[in-house]
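In response to reviewer comment 3 from the previous cycle, which asked for concrete evidence that the modeling workflow produces usable outputs, we include below a single protein chain processed end to end. The sequence was submitted unchanged, and the resulting structure tokens are shown without manual editing.
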Amino acid sequence: MPFAIQFGLKSWSLPVPSTVALVLVAVLYLHGWFRFRSASPGVIQLWRAAAFLCGLFLVWIAVGSPLAELDEELLSVHMVQHLLLMTLASPLILLGAPAMVFLHAFPLFFIHRVLVPFLRSPGAQRFGRVITAPLFCWLVATAVLMGWHFPAVYKLGLESHSWHVIEHGSFLVAGLLFWWPVIPPWPSIVSHARWSVVLYLFLATLPCDALSAFLTFCGRVVYTSYVDTPRHFSISPLQDQEFAGALMWIWVTFAYLIPAVFLTASLLSSPRAESGACIQGQTWPE
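The workflow returned the following structure tokens.
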């Protein structure tokens, strides 16, 4: 077994707070999913629950598994964590229709007297429109991605456990916001033209390409914290950085290209679907 894997397994201890939090979210989701399923049979499919749970599991892989023990030793492992949170876990969570499912998970008096009136209030509606606007989502995702890769900020995340947790949380939140225009919460009102999402995904690759190209071809170790760490897989810190940059380049290209291709094919096969806002029905708890 490679030394890096042995190191991760030996030094790993189950992160109780994050694991318990993810389990509680999963239990609450399943409670809401079964209530929704009972109230409206056949409305919400099983695959949505499977997608949501897979998304939570990928979050745990990124922040709670033995993989997390290697992020201070290898930049490439740290990059895998970021990519898991932003490009895989986030879209899977949104595919699980969490808004409607969690709405059914709470007691009915809380839903009808507190939650629904709050969500329908003008202030909440305006705030929701702002934070889910494609431009805002793109800017937040880009700022989080680029900001945490500045050497001084990156070093802060490595040296402080609290900032490390904030870093992972910001990548997950940024990922959820980024994918929101691509995977609107179900059911929802889509106010932007769906063809613009293809351009949105293309533009999202540009900052990722710039960062990954810099890490791959700059020819020097950008994050000096990795210079004195143990060597794993017989690669130098510069080789590790080059691999991390190349991994990001390839991973992000496919992560954004695949949904863009599917969306383009869907729009071309359904020309009438692009007629403006797409409104889906709303099902409230009874």
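The chain is about 70% helix and 0% strand. We consider this sufficient to address the reviewer's concern, and the full set will be provided in the supplementary archive.
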